[in-house]
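User: Hey, quick favor. My workstation is busy. Could you predict this chain's structure for me?
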Amino acid sequence: MQQDSGLGVGAAVLLLLVSALLLPHLNLEGPEEEPPGSSMMEAGSLPKFREDFRTKNKSVFILGASGATGQVLLREILKENLFSKVTIIGRRKIEFEEEAYKHVHQEVVDFEKLDEYSSAFQGHDVGFCCLGTTRSKAGSDGFVRVDRDYVLKSAELAKAGGCKHFNFLSSKGADKSSSFLYLQIKGEVEAKIEEFNFERYTIFRPAVLLCDRKESRPAEWLARKFLGSLPASWAKDHSVPVTTVVRAMVNNLIMPSDKKTELLDNQAIHNLGKAEDLNKP
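Assistant: No problem, here it is.
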């Protein structure tokens, strides 16, 4: 089960069609570019935040580590050596060849019987949920089961297991009142997780994720190609590279916060994600 695009396939197609109709009437020069970073932080403070975070010897779990976002997130967390223990939770074991992954702990679970695997969710300070599928791959019922039922049960078990900071990869436009099933489910899950009352709960709402997937998703491919042809100042309102999302996740993670619930929209993800280069030497 891989994480679906930040914006669902159906929504991506809709975006493509609407954009094609509106394009002649848009000012593609867009607003003036904002400076790197965001109002929440200065990039210069990140090394200090990172150093302080490492000293806390925290543990983390990742749901959906085999997906487009989860893979990059796992790689970055290991590269930055942010946690004393890293666990990935999934329906099958992932074979890693790189030496950097040798200490990753894997918990293989049956998502249909998650109550029997509560121990997999115990003892983690931080949790990242990048779990998801698509309607085209799993059907409407399967999509709801994975993106709502599996996610909510996982969050419930994480809370019971002592997780303090839960991070949920949602989607731009998420709204429990939406007429689009994808956005409706994402909005519903956002609200339900908040009821679990984590000490810190962060929601990421990216738009169309720009990445290279192993599986074929024609609608997303068309959307990415179309967005890639537009000026960056306009395209970034409707898309975001996976690496930028992960950068925002990690930067937000290490930053101290007194907010119980944080919601980062696509613009905030861009701002926070570009505060520091993911591929710095």
